[in-house]
C-alpha cells in the first residue's frame, strides 16, 4: 500500500537539533534560526542555533572520543561508514526533499547529490583498508625504516550552502575513515540536510563524540576551532576570500588546512567536436544548480569556425529549460539561493551590457513568480576580458560566449585568472586534448565531460582555488600524518 501523506516519511517534519557528544540538543539559550525556502520565501523549519559554548563542548567531546575511535581497526570503521551509506540510500527521498526546500535545486539533482554522498561515505570506508605505510630500504644493515599513517586528530569542518550533502560527506567520510573525530558546521541557510545525514551516522553506530554537529554563526565557530589545541585540522569549502583569512588564522597553532575555494572555469570547444552535443553538455554543466557550482563552466571559449552554430544551439536549449519550484516534476532550474545573489548577477550582466555585450536570452530577474529568488538563465555574446563576469566568480546562471582561433591563445586566455579549479575541453583530437590537459592551470580537467566529480578521483584547485585535494586516495591522505619510524637493531 502506498504511504499516506500522514505516514509518508518524506513529508514528516524535519529534525531541527544539533548533535553533540551523542545527544540531540537545543541551543544553550534556546535560540532558533528560520530556514527559508528560496522558491517561495516560506519557513521550512526553525532549527536550534548556538550562541555560546556549544562549539567548545563539541570539540571537547570529539577530543575525548578520539583515542577509542582511532584504536578501532579500519575494517570496523568501514562497517559503520557502509551502514551510513545504506541508511542514506534508504532515506534519500526525504533528505533530497529537505535539500530542495532549503537550497532550491531540483529534486532529481538533490537526490543524485544524496546518492553521491552515500557513495562517498562507502568509498572512504573501503579506501581506509588500503592506507598502507611503506618499508624503505636502509643505508645501514643494522637499521630498518618504515612509515605508518596516523590520524590527524580532531577535525573541524565548515561548508557552504550550494552542496549541503556532498561537501560535508567529502570531509566527514575520509576523516572518520582515517580515525579522526569531527565537529561539523553547515551553512546557516542549509542545516537540515546535514542534520539528516548526521542522523544516518548516529543510527549506523558512530559512537558518541565521534561526529558532532553545531549550527551557529560562522565566526564564533571558527574562533572556537582556532582556539582549541585539540583541533588539529580545519577543512573548509567556500570563497577564496574566507579561505585566505583561514590561512592567516591557522598560523598561531599551525593547524592543518584543506581549502576548497572559488573557481571560474573555462569551457573550450574545438571545431572538430559535435556542436549540438557540446551545446547540450555545456547547458547541462552551466545551469546545474543554477550555476551556483564551484566547478561550473563560466567562460565559454568557442572556436570561431563553430561559434555561430554553438551559440544558436546553446540559446535554443537554454530557452527550453524548465524553470520552477524544484519539488515540481520535470523542473530543471530552481530559484537562486538568496536575494543578494539576484543583485550580484544583475550587476554582472549590466556591467557586461554597458561594455558592449549582447544578451541573447534571459538577462534579468524572472517576473513569473510572486515570491522567491528567480533569475532567467542567460546567454551573452560580444564578451571580452574587461567585463566583470570574466574576472569575478559569477556563481550564477550566466553563459558568456567568446570565440578564439589558436590553441595557444585560448590556453593563455583560460589561464589568465587567479583561479584554477576546473576546466573543460571538447574535442575528439587526441593531440589537442593532451596539449590542453597539460597546458590548462586547473586541478580538474573534464575532456568531453561536463560533470567530472566522483568519489574515487581527486577534486581540488590550483592557484587561489585551494590547498589540497578532496575525494580519491588524496582525499583520505589529507586526514593522516605520515609517521616515519627508524629502528636500530641490537648488534649481536
Ligand atoms: P563563504 O562566504 O566563504 O562561506 C562558506 C562557509 O564559510 C559558510 O558556511 C559560511 O557561513 C562560512 N564562513 C563565512 N565567513 C567565515 C569566516 N570568517 N570564518 C569561517 N567561516 C566563515 O562562501 P559562499 O559564498 O557561501 O559559498 C560559495 C563559495 O564557495 C564560492 O566561492 C564557491 O566557488 C565556493 N565553493 C568551492 C567549492 C570547491 O570544492 N572548491 C565547492 C563549493 C563552493 P555563513 O553561511 O553563515 O556565512
Low-confidence stretches: none
How are the strands ordered across the major sheet? 14-15-16-13-12-17-18
Mass-distribution shape: globular
- The biggest beta sheet, please? 7 strands, mixed
The CATH architecture of the largest domain is: 3-Layer(aba) Sandwich
Can you identify the CATH class of the largest domain? Alpha Beta
Helix proportion: 25-40%
Q: Give the cofactors and ligands.
A: NADP nicotinamide-adenine-dinucleotide phosphate
Structural classification: alpha/beta
The count of helical stretches stands at 15
Structural domain count? 2
Which value, in Å, is the CA radius of gyration?
24 Å
Give the full name of the CATH homologous superfamily of the largest domain.
Aldehyde Dehydrogenase, Chain A, domain 1
Give me the count of strands.
20
Estimate the mean pLDDT confidence: 97
The third-level CATH topology of the largest domain is Aldehyde Dehydrogenase, Chain A, domain 1
How much of the sequence is in beta strands? 15-25%
Distance between the terminal alpha carbons, to the nearest Å? Answer: 78 Å
Structural features, described:
With 492 residues, this protein is an alpha/beta fold. It has two domains: 9-261 and 466-483, Aldehyde Dehydrogenase, Chain A, domain 1; 265-460, Aldehyde Dehydrogenase, Chain A, domain 2 (3-Layer(aba) Sandwich), CATH 3.40.309.10. It has helices at residues 54-71, 74-90, 92-103, 107-128, 166-178, 191-203, 218-227, 240-249, 275-287, 307-320, 339-354, 388-391, 407-415, 430-439, 472-477; strands spanning 18-20, 23-25, 32-36, 43-48, 135-136, 143-151, 154-158, 181-185, 211-213, 231-237, 256-260, 265-269, 297-303, 358-361, 378-381, 398-404, 422-426, 444-447, 466-467, 480-488. It has a seven-stranded mixed β-sheet, with helices on both faces. Helix 2 runs antiparallel to helix 4 (107-128), helix 2 runs antiparallel to helix 5 (166-178) and helix 2 (74-90) crosses helix 6 (191-203). The longest helix has 22 residues, at 107-128. The protein is globular. Residues 158-163, 167, 187-188, 218-219, 222, 237-239, 242, 245, 260-263, 294, 393, 395, 421, 461, 466 line the site of NADP nicotinamide-adenine-dinucleotide phosphate (NAP).
